[in-house]
């Protein structure tokens, strides 16, 4: 099921990052950081710059090595894929007789995002959910561990404090 969703592609001449209706990004990280709606964006680089820019209120931004390391972890050449953005245990329905995913709910944040975003956000969500992090590579078969670790490092600055409360 997840593989099928991740295989969706936009027409090459009409790439954008945003909600399915070509609207702003609905990902809650932006909403909880008190930012204006973002997008739709026309490049992965614009998305990466906006993600990096969430730290503008933090001390020593952008000169500190932490911010440069964070930004460098996100490739501007990533493809754009359809993404749920809020995969976590409460949104994934697993068969009681097997480990098969039989349903996914809670699609309001979904949209077109850089290919690494599903893994990064799922890793972030699974960190909040304890043991489920052990199943991340079962749920998503394309690991973007460097990007997930970079978001974890950025999170350690307190940037998403309101989101985590």
From TrEMBL:
Q: Where are the transmembrane segments?
A: none
| Origin superkingdom | Eukaryota
Q: Which Gene3D superfamilies match?
A: 3.90.1200.10
Organism, scientific name:
Mycena rosella
Which positions fall inside the Aminoglycoside phosphotransferase domain? Answer: 57-132
Q: This chain belongs to which protein, by name?
A: Aminoglycoside phosphotransferase domain-containing protein
> Where would one find coiled-coil regions in this protein?
none
């Amino acid at each position: 099921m997840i593989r099928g969703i991740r295989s969706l592609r936009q027409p090459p001449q009409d790439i954008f990052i945003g909600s399915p209706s070509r609207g702003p990004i609905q990902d809650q990280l932006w909403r909880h950081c008190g930012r204006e709606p973002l997008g739709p964006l026309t490049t992965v680089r614009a998305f990466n710059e906006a993600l990096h820019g969430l730290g503008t209120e933090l001390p020593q931004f952008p000169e500190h090595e932490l911010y440069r390391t964070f930004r460098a972890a996100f490739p501007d050449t990533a493809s754009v894929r359809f993404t749920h953005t809020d995969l976590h245990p409460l949104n994934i329905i697993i068969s009681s007789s097997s480990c098969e995913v039989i349903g996914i709910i809670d699609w309001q944040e979904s949209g077109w995002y850089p290919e690494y975003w599903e893994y990064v956000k799922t890793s972030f969500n699974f960190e909040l959910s304890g043991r489920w992090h052990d199943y991340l590579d079962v749920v998503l078969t394309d690991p973007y561990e460097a990007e997930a670790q970079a978001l974890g490092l950025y999170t350690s600055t307190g940037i998403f404090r309101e989101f985590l409360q």
